[in-house]
Design brief:
The chain is of the alpha/beta class. The protein contains 10 helices and 12 strands.
């Protein structure tokens, strides 16, 4: 794929490195040409540096908005034409002081990005982990690859992002349409508060799948499915 990356920070570095190793053509775009050049040189493998507009235009299959909450929407408004028709990946988290969800009561960060770039197919992904997790080769814990929820409305866009998730060494999980992106962002706010604020193991708060619906949950689900098909 030809992938444009908007941003020169840690998330841009971590994800673009995986995608270059997987054989994708990656262009790093930044407001500061020197930062973009340094990052492209560090990633290597043919990654090249450009301005934001050129990087957006080069990402004919996908563009990663690796920008802070709010900044991504501002940049998307500036770059509206180059982003038309592209798959635009939002990995931002609208989390403020006190681990507060900054979008509470309003549209999610992903929805705001979609409104700023109405011609793009926005997909929410890669927002639940620290950038150092994305640097792992691959992110595997207890023998299981990390699962990455993905939310979006366009099937082609979702298929491309699922491929990019696998290129990081993770397993994509269908998270529903873009209207559910706010749930992912709220989950990030909760997890960050548990990890950083409380020192708690957020992974331990959910039971294994076999117990998720309670005793007999699987049989109940099976019965409902069978009765609905009659």
């Amino acid at each position: 794929m030809r992938i444009g990356v908007l941003g020169t920070g840690n998330m841009a570095d971590a994800l673009a490195t995986h995608w270059v190793r997987a054989g994708h053509d990656v262009t790093i775009g930044g407001r500061d040409p020197r930062k973009a050049e340094r990052l492209a040189a560090r990633i290597g493998g043919g990654a090249r540096a450009a301005g934001l507009r050129e990087a957006a235009g080069s990402g004919q299959e996908a563009v990663l908005a690796a920008l802070p909450f709010g900044v991504g929407a501002d940049v998307a408004r500036e770059l509206r034409v180059p982003l038309e028709g592209t798959v635009l990946i939002d990995c931002s988290n609208p989390v403020g002081p006190g681990f507060r969800l900054l979008t509470e009561g309003g549209p999610s960060a992903a929805r705001q990005l979609a409104a700023a770039a109405p011609g793009a197919h926005v997909v929410k992904a890669f927002n639940l982990c620290h950038e150092d997790v994305w640097r792992m080769r691959p992110p595997v814990f207890g023998g299981r690859p990390l699962a990455v929820p993905v939310c979006g409305d366009d099937e082609t866009a979702l298929a491309r992002v699922h491929e990019l998730v696998r290129d990081v060494g993770c397993e994509p999980v269908a998270g529903g349409g873009l209207e559910r992106a706010g749930l992912l962002e709220a989950t990030a706010a909760l997890f960050i508060a548990l990890w950083v604020g409380e020192g708690a193991d957020a992974q331990a708060i959910a039971p294994p799948l076999a117990y998720a619906a309670g005793p007999g949950g699987q049989e109940t689900a099976s019965s409902v499915s069978s009765s609905g098909s009659r």
